[in-house]
Amino acid sequence: MIPLFISIGFFDLLDIILVAFLLYQLYQLVKGTVAINIFAGILIILFIWWLVRLLNMNLLSTILGSVIGVGAIAVIIVFQQEIRRFLLVLGTQDIFNRSYPFQNYFNKNYSDFTNETLKQIVRACRNLSKTQTGVLIVLSVRSELLTYVQSGDVLDSEVHHRILETIFFKNSPMHDGAVIIVGDRIKAARCVLPIDDNLNLPAHLGLRHRAALSMSMETDTIVITVSEETGKIGYAKGSVLKTEVSHEALFAFLIKEFMVNRDK
User: Fold this and answer.
1) Same domain, yes or no, for 213 and 121?
2) pLDDT at 42 over 50
3) Angle, CA 93 vertex, CA 194 and CA 122 arms, to 5°
4) The total number of structural domains that make up the chain
5) Is residue 104 included in any domain, yes or no?
6) 78-90: per-residue pLDDT in tens?
7) Three-state DSSP class for 75?
8) 193, exposed or middle or buried, with CB in 10 Å at 0-12, 13-18, 19+?
9) How many CB atoms lie within 10 A of CB 182?
10) For the segment 72-126, what is each residue's pLDDT rounded down to a tens digit?
11) Are residues 136 and 248 in the same domain?
Protein backbone atom coordinates (compact mmCIF):
# COMPACT_ATOMS: atom_id res chain seq x y z
CA MET A 1 0.00 0.00 0.00
CA ILE A 2 1.41 3.38 -0.97
CA PRO A 3 1.43 5.80 1.98
CA LEU A 4 -0.03 9.25 1.50
CA PHE A 5 2.59 12.01 1.52
CA ILE A 6 0.02 14.63 2.58
CA SER A 7 -1.86 14.36 5.89
CA ILE A 8 -5.05 16.37 6.11
CA GLY A 9 -6.62 17.18 9.46
CA PHE A 10 -9.67 19.07 10.62
CA PHE A 11 -7.96 22.46 10.75
CA ASP A 12 -6.51 21.91 7.27
CA LEU A 13 -10.03 21.42 5.92
CA LEU A 14 -11.24 24.44 7.85
CA ASP A 15 -8.37 26.48 6.42
CA ILE A 16 -9.27 25.45 2.86
CA ILE A 17 -12.96 26.24 3.39
CA LEU A 18 -12.24 29.69 4.82
CA VAL A 19 -9.83 30.57 2.00
CA ALA A 20 -12.35 29.38 -0.59
CA PHE A 21 -15.07 31.47 1.07
CA LEU A 22 -12.90 34.61 1.07
CA LEU A 23 -11.91 34.09 -2.57
CA TYR A 24 -15.57 33.65 -3.50
CA GLN A 25 -16.53 36.88 -1.71
CA LEU A 26 -13.72 38.74 -3.47
CA TYR A 27 -14.88 37.31 -6.78
CA GLN A 28 -18.44 38.53 -6.10
CA LEU A 29 -17.10 42.06 -5.50
CA VAL A 30 -15.03 42.28 -8.69
CA LYS A 31 -17.38 40.29 -10.94
CA GLY A 32 -18.48 42.33 -13.91
CA THR A 33 -15.71 44.93 -13.53
CA VAL A 34 -12.34 45.40 -15.21
CA ALA A 35 -10.71 44.24 -11.97
CA ILE A 36 -11.87 40.65 -12.60
CA ASN A 37 -9.04 40.19 -15.13
CA ILE A 38 -6.47 41.42 -12.61
CA PHE A 39 -8.01 39.16 -9.97
CA ALA A 40 -7.69 36.12 -12.27
CA GLY A 41 -4.05 37.00 -13.05
CA ILE A 42 -3.20 37.22 -9.34
CA LEU A 43 -4.77 33.81 -8.69
CA ILE A 44 -2.73 32.27 -11.51
CA ILE A 45 0.52 33.71 -10.09
CA LEU A 46 -0.36 32.48 -6.59
CA PHE A 47 -1.12 29.00 -7.92
CA ILE A 48 2.19 28.84 -9.81
CA TRP A 49 4.06 30.06 -6.71
CA TRP A 50 2.40 27.42 -4.54
CA LEU A 51 3.21 24.74 -7.15
CA VAL A 52 6.93 25.59 -7.47
CA ARG A 53 7.26 25.68 -3.68
CA LEU A 54 5.65 22.25 -3.48
CA LEU A 55 8.16 20.96 -6.06
CA ASN A 56 11.07 22.60 -4.18
CA MET A 57 12.06 24.77 -7.15
CA ASN A 58 13.90 27.24 -4.94
CA LEU A 59 15.13 29.77 -7.52
CA LEU A 60 11.77 30.26 -9.23
CA SER A 61 10.02 30.20 -5.87
CA THR A 62 12.28 33.01 -4.59
CA ILE A 63 11.67 35.14 -7.70
CA LEU A 64 7.88 34.69 -7.54
CA GLY A 65 7.91 35.33 -3.80
CA SER A 66 9.69 38.65 -4.36
CA VAL A 67 7.20 39.63 -7.07
CA ILE A 68 4.25 38.77 -4.82
CA GLY A 69 5.76 40.64 -1.87
CA VAL A 70 6.14 43.84 -3.90
CA GLY A 71 2.84 43.22 -5.68
CA ALA A 72 0.90 43.25 -2.40
CA ILE A 73 1.17 47.06 -2.32
CA ALA A 74 0.10 47.28 -5.96
CA VAL A 75 -2.92 45.06 -5.23
CA ILE A 76 -4.05 47.40 -2.44
CA ILE A 77 -3.80 50.37 -4.82
CA VAL A 78 -5.57 48.64 -7.71
CA PHE A 79 -8.32 47.13 -5.57
CA GLN A 80 -8.82 50.03 -3.17
CA GLN A 81 -12.49 50.49 -4.12
CA GLU A 82 -13.18 46.74 -3.94
CA ILE A 83 -11.39 46.46 -0.57
CA ARG A 84 -13.41 49.38 0.79
CA ARG A 85 -16.60 47.78 -0.48
CA PHE A 86 -15.64 44.42 1.08
CA LEU A 87 -15.00 46.02 4.48
CA LEU A 88 -18.27 47.94 4.24
CA VAL A 89 -20.21 44.76 3.50
CA LEU A 90 -18.38 42.94 6.30
CA GLY A 91 -19.16 45.68 8.80
CA THR A 92 -22.87 45.91 7.95
CA GLN A 93 -23.79 42.23 7.78
CA ASP A 94 -26.91 41.31 9.75
CA ILE A 95 -25.05 38.58 11.64
CA PHE A 96 -22.93 41.23 13.35
CA ASN A 97 -25.93 43.40 14.20
CA ARG A 98 -27.73 40.46 15.80
CA SER A 99 -24.76 38.87 17.55
CA TYR A 100 -23.10 42.00 18.90
CA PRO A 101 -25.68 44.44 20.29
CA PHE A 102 -22.90 46.74 21.53
CA GLN A 103 -22.49 47.97 17.95
CA ASN A 104 -25.70 49.92 18.42
CA TYR A 105 -23.74 52.30 20.64
CA PHE A 106 -21.43 53.12 17.73
CA ASN A 107 -23.75 52.86 14.71
CA LYS A 108 -26.87 54.97 14.91
CA ASN A 109 -29.76 53.87 12.73
CA TYR A 110 -30.90 56.68 10.43
CA SER A 111 -33.56 54.62 8.66
CA ASP A 112 -36.54 55.90 10.73
CA PHE A 113 -38.49 56.96 7.67
CA THR A 114 -42.20 57.26 8.31
CA ASN A 115 -44.76 56.04 5.82
CA GLU A 116 -45.73 59.64 5.13
CA THR A 117 -42.15 60.57 4.25
CA LEU A 118 -41.86 57.65 1.84
CA LYS A 119 -45.20 58.64 0.29
CA GLN A 120 -43.95 62.19 -0.26
CA ILE A 121 -40.77 60.91 -1.93
CA VAL A 122 -42.64 58.53 -4.22
CA ARG A 123 -45.25 61.19 -5.06
CA ALA A 124 -42.48 63.59 -6.07
CA CYS A 125 -40.88 60.92 -8.26
CA ARG A 126 -44.23 60.15 -9.90
CA ASN A 127 -44.91 63.81 -10.70
CA LEU A 128 -41.37 64.46 -11.94
CA SER A 129 -41.51 61.30 -14.04
CA LYS A 130 -44.49 62.72 -15.94
CA THR A 131 -42.49 65.80 -16.93
CA GLN A 132 -39.31 63.78 -17.61
CA THR A 133 -37.37 65.69 -14.98
CA GLY A 134 -34.12 64.12 -13.83
CA VAL A 135 -34.07 62.97 -10.20
CA LEU A 136 -31.33 61.62 -7.92
CA ILE A 137 -32.36 61.02 -4.28
CA VAL A 138 -30.14 59.30 -1.70
CA LEU A 139 -31.83 57.66 1.30
CA SER A 140 -29.40 56.91 4.12
CA VAL A 141 -29.73 53.76 6.21
CA ARG A 142 -26.97 53.84 8.83
CA SER A 143 -24.87 56.93 8.16
CA GLU A 144 -25.21 60.72 8.20
CA LEU A 145 -23.22 60.90 4.94
CA LEU A 146 -21.56 64.11 6.13
CA THR A 147 -18.89 63.99 3.43
CA TYR A 148 -21.51 64.02 0.67
CA VAL A 149 -23.83 66.43 2.49
CA GLN A 150 -21.03 68.97 2.75
CA SER A 151 -20.41 68.76 -0.99
CA GLY A 152 -23.79 70.40 -1.67
CA ASP A 153 -26.12 73.03 -0.24
CA VAL A 154 -27.25 72.19 3.32
CA LEU A 155 -31.03 72.53 3.78
CA ASP A 156 -32.23 70.44 6.76
CA SER A 157 -35.88 70.75 5.79
CA GLU A 158 -38.92 68.52 6.04
CA VAL A 159 -39.60 65.98 3.31
CA HIS A 160 -42.47 67.14 1.10
CA HIS A 161 -43.16 66.39 -2.54
CA ARG A 162 -43.45 70.10 -3.42
CA ILE A 163 -40.01 70.82 -1.95
CA LEU A 164 -38.46 67.94 -3.90
CA GLU A 165 -40.22 68.98 -7.10
CA THR A 166 -38.98 72.55 -6.64
CA ILE A 167 -35.40 71.39 -6.08
CA PHE A 168 -35.34 69.23 -9.22
CA PHE A 169 -37.21 71.76 -11.40
CA LYS A 170 -35.05 72.28 -14.49
CA ASN A 171 -34.65 76.03 -13.93
CA SER A 172 -33.84 75.66 -10.24
CA PRO A 173 -30.24 76.49 -9.26
CA MET A 174 -30.17 73.35 -7.09
CA HIS A 175 -31.53 70.82 -9.61
CA ASP A 176 -28.10 69.59 -10.70
CA GLY A 177 -26.82 66.91 -8.33
CA ALA A 178 -28.35 64.68 -5.68
CA VAL A 179 -30.67 65.26 -2.75
CA ILE A 180 -29.65 63.47 0.44
CA ILE A 181 -32.35 62.48 2.92
CA VAL A 182 -31.32 61.32 6.40
CA GLY A 183 -33.65 60.52 9.28
CA ASP A 184 -36.81 62.02 7.76
CA ARG A 185 -35.05 65.28 6.84
CA ILE A 186 -33.77 66.65 3.55
CA LYS A 187 -30.19 67.29 4.62
CA ALA A 188 -28.80 68.79 1.43
CA ALA A 189 -29.31 69.31 -2.29
CA ARG A 190 -26.92 69.69 -5.24
CA CYS A 191 -24.64 67.05 -3.69
CA VAL A 192 -21.82 65.40 -5.61
CA LEU A 193 -21.83 61.60 -5.66
CA PRO A 194 -18.92 59.26 -6.48
CA ILE A 195 -18.74 57.78 -9.97
CA ASP A 196 -17.05 54.44 -10.64
CA ASP A 197 -15.78 54.40 -14.22
CA ASN A 198 -15.32 50.62 -14.11
CA LEU A 199 -19.05 49.87 -13.98
CA ASN A 200 -20.32 48.00 -17.00
CA LEU A 201 -23.64 49.71 -17.71
CA PRO A 202 -25.65 49.82 -20.95
CA ALA A 203 -24.82 52.74 -23.21
CA HIS A 204 -28.27 54.31 -22.85
CA LEU A 205 -27.75 54.83 -19.10
CA GLY A 206 -26.01 58.11 -18.30
CA LEU A 207 -24.10 59.63 -15.40
CA ARG A 208 -27.20 59.78 -13.18
CA HIS A 209 -27.59 56.00 -13.10
CA ARG A 210 -23.84 55.46 -12.87
CA ALA A 211 -23.66 57.80 -9.88
CA ALA A 212 -26.65 56.07 -8.24
CA LEU A 213 -25.09 52.62 -8.56
CA SER A 214 -21.66 53.86 -7.46
CA MET A 215 -23.16 55.52 -4.38
CA SER A 216 -25.20 52.47 -3.37
CA MET A 217 -22.17 50.20 -3.77
CA GLU A 218 -19.83 52.42 -1.75
CA THR A 219 -22.27 53.34 1.03
CA ASP A 220 -25.18 51.77 2.86
CA THR A 221 -27.81 53.74 0.95
CA ILE A 222 -30.72 53.40 -1.42
CA VAL A 223 -30.61 55.80 -4.38
CA ILE A 224 -33.73 56.67 -6.37
CA THR A 225 -33.50 57.88 -9.96
CA VAL A 226 -35.79 59.35 -12.58
CA SER A 227 -34.43 59.43 -16.09
CA GLU A 228 -34.45 62.81 -17.79
CA GLU A 229 -34.55 61.14 -21.22
CA THR A 230 -37.38 58.65 -20.64
CA GLY A 231 -39.01 59.67 -17.35
CA LYS A 232 -38.65 56.11 -16.03
CA ILE A 233 -38.28 55.61 -12.28
CA GLY A 234 -35.52 53.40 -10.91
CA TYR A 235 -33.45 52.69 -7.83
CA ALA A 236 -30.10 51.28 -6.80
CA LYS A 237 -29.30 49.19 -3.75
CA GLY A 238 -25.91 47.58 -3.30
CA SER A 239 -24.85 46.24 -6.69
CA VAL A 240 -28.44 46.01 -7.99
CA LEU A 241 -29.78 48.69 -10.34
CA LYS A 242 -33.42 48.80 -11.42
CA THR A 243 -34.15 51.26 -14.21
CA GLU A 244 -37.86 50.80 -14.86
CA VAL A 245 -40.27 50.39 -11.95
CA SER A 246 -43.70 51.85 -11.26
CA HIS A 247 -44.22 54.30 -8.43
CA GLU A 248 -46.34 51.65 -6.68
CA ALA A 249 -43.49 49.13 -6.88
CA LEU A 250 -41.04 51.76 -5.63
CA PHE A 251 -43.22 52.52 -2.61
CA ALA A 252 -43.61 48.81 -1.80
CA PHE A 253 -39.84 48.34 -2.05
CA LEU A 254 -39.11 51.29 0.24
CA ILE A 255 -41.68 50.19 2.80
CA LYS A 256 -40.16 46.71 2.87
CA GLU A 257 -36.59 47.97 3.16
CA PHE A 258 -37.11 50.54 5.89
CA MET A 259 -39.55 48.47 7.90
CA VAL A 260 -36.89 45.71 8.02
CA ASN A 261 -34.17 48.16 9.06
CA ARG A 262 -36.42 49.71 11.69
CA ASP A 263 -36.87 46.31 13.37
CA LYS A 264 -33.13 45.70 13.69
Assistant:
1) yes
2) yes
3) 55
4) 2
5) no
6) 666 666 666 665 5
7) helix
8) buried
9) 23
10) 777 677 666 666 666 665 555 444 444 444 444 444 555 568 889 999 999 999 9
11) yes
